[in-house]
């Protein structure tokens, strides 16, 4: 676990200054392209160039099951996790379609689903168990499992860099993982479960109430042991896939690989990663505002501005995939627009 404390790569401030200067010379009023300008400038600093691009994208979907499902916190049965992983591999899921349209590399990682699948192209098997234990009964995972999950994520980020990717997108699959994410948010932000617990895969009002009650009980159970330590909370109430995402985000920041964070569950991993390594925030973009109740409450804690707001609550990395064209277009306008001098257009007085 020594690697987790290694420093996050510094942003290239000279490249930031060069990109800012270029933006001031393009044929438009200053700031007219809004957040597209900020995205291009941030990417320039991350990549250490005046003209960045994100043509090569790696999408890694981490899957894991949750023992807490036995407490009635999900509208869907646990076997859906394995079925959806198979759907990812066979190209039938939303993220499969989006990745194909983007020309992105798609990798599915079994971090610990309850029923494993046989080896297949596009499936990486790095299991920490057959799902976590119920966090209502005890810690969701032990220290060795947490370590393996974090290293599973780090390995995925390393593979992305080794394949010359310019952007890392992490996604997740795991029935019950909105409960794990909500518990992490409550623990790390000091919020009550009622404000951060939503419908997940489609709970009715009674189901949401039951889910919030279970999460409150989980928080009480682990408060004394975990205190304000993010890694302890991740071990006690998190999921294999959330822990793997956390490791991937930290390693991506260490390697200098820009990160596009997905929705409600992926944001929980991002929050844990920031608590462990605050500087990793410099390498993150937030793709969208999730429709899942509670995501709005945590946006300020992430210190990131969502690029899209489309009412999404699917997960899988799908919202992040939808935001990739925005990053690409931010780069295109920054790189290819004419300057006032090149276009022989008069600048501002």
- Mean of all residue-level pLDDT scores: 96
Major β-sheet profile: 7 strands, parallel
Strand order of the largest sheet: 3-2-1-4-5-6-7
How many DSSP H or I helices? 14
Reconstruct the topology from this structure.
Blueprint: H1 13-25, H2 35-47, E1 57-64, H3 79-89, H4 94-102, E2 105-112, E3 123-125, H5 143-162, E4 167-173, H6 177-189, H7 193-196, H8 205-226, H9 230-237, H10 240-255, E5 259-261, H11 264-276, E6 284-288, H12 295-302, E7 306-308, H13 318-336, H14 340-343
Parallel strand pairs: 1-2, 1-4, 2-3, 4-5, 5-6, 6-7
Helix pairs in contact: 1-2, 2-13, 4-13, 5-10, 6-8, 6-9, 6-11, 8-9, 10-11, 11-12
Tell me what the structure shows.
With 349 residues, this protein is an alpha/beta fold. It has 2 domains: 2-52 and 334-343, Nicotinate-nucleotide-dimethylbenzimidazole phosphoribosyltransferase (CobT), small domain (5,6-Dimethylbenzimidazole Phosphoribosyltransferase, Chain: A, domain 1, Orthogonal Bundle), CATH 1.10.1610.10; 57-327, Rossmann fold, CATH 3.40.50. The chain is 50% helix and 11% strand. It is built from 14 helices and 7 strands. Helix 6 packs antiparallel against helix 9 and helix 8 crosses helix 9 (230-237). It is globular, with a radius of gyration of 20 Å. The model has no long low-confidence stretch (mean pLDDT 96).
Task: Looking at this protein, list some descriptive labels.
14 helices; 349 residues; 11% strand; 7 strands; alpha/beta; 7-stranded parallel β-sheet; 5,6-Dimethylbenzimidazole Phosphoribosyltransferase, Chain: A, domain 1; Rossmann fold; globular
């Amino acid at each position: 676990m020594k690697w987790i404390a290694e420093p996050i790569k510094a942003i290239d401030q000279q490249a930031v200054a060069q990109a800012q200067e270029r933006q001031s010379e393009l044929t438009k009023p200053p700031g007219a392209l809004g957040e597209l300008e900020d995205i291009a400038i941030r990417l320039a600093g991350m990549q250490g160039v005046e003209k960045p691009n994100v043509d090569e994208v790696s999408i890694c979907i981490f899957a894991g099951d949750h023992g807490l499902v036995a407490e009635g916190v999900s509208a869907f049965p646990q076997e859906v996790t394995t079925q959806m992983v198979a759907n990812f591999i066979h190209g039938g899921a939303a993220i499969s379609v989006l990745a194909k349209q983007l020309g992105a590399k798609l990798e599915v990682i079994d971090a610990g689903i309850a029923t494993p699948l046989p080896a297949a192209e596009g499936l990486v098997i790095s299991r920490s168990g057959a799902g976590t234990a119920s966090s209502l009964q005890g810690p969701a995972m032990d220290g060795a499992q947490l370590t393996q999950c974090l290293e599973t994520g780090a390995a995925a980020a390393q593979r992305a860099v080794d394949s010359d990717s310019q952007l890392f997108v992490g996604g997740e699959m795991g029935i019950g993982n909105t409960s794990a994410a909500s518990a992490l948010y409550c623990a790390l932000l000091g919020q009550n479960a009622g404000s951060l617990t939503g419908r997940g895969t489609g709970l009715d009002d009674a189901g949401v109430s039951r889910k919030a009650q279970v999460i409150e009980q989980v928080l009480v159970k682990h408060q004394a042991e975990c205190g304000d330590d993010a890694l302890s909370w991740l071990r006690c109430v998190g999921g294999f896939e959330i822990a793997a995402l956390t490791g991937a985000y930290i390693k991506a920041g260490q390697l200098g690989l820009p990160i596009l964070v997905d929705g409600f569950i992926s944001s929980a991993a991002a929050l844990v990663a920031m608590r462990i390594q605050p500087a990793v925030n410099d390498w993150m973009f937030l793709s969208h505002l999730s429709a899942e109740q509670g995501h709005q409450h945590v946006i300020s804690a992430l210190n990131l501005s969502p690029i899209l707001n489309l009412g999404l609550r699917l997960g899988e990395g799908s919202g992040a995939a939808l935001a990739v064209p925005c990053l690409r277009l931010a780069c295109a306008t920054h790189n290819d627009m004419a300057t006032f001098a090149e276009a022989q257009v008069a600048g501002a007085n």
